[in-house]
Design a protein that fits this description.
By secondary structure, the chain is mainly beta. The chain has 1 helix and 11 strands. The protein is globular, with a radius of gyration of 13 Å.
Length: 127
Amino acid sequence: QVQLVESGGGLVQTGGSLRLSCSASGRTISSYAMGWFRQAPGKEREFVAGITRGGGRTHYVDSVKGRFTISRDNAKNTVYLQMNSLNDEDTAVYYCAAATANSPWALATSPNLCNFWGQGTQVTVSS
């Protein structure tokens, strides 16, 4: 069992930056690909970014490419999402997830592959 806790969300102005963290406990995350998802009010959950177990490969949804960066520190059992140039379309609850399937591309199309989910952290972008 892996417990995931997101932090770092908050209110930010358009064009600003936030860094989300996802801290894991229970088991080491080195055995899992990790992903970030988000869900805006009235919309379905959306894949944002994913990273392989060793951190060597990443994948992003087109809308965040060039603005968001996913990274991981397996020694700290933590995954990060650096978000730059935020706009109001990025407003959502952001969730961290862990998957035994070592493919961020698979997580993008099949979120049900994720074995564990965090509770989420709210990100609100305001102009």
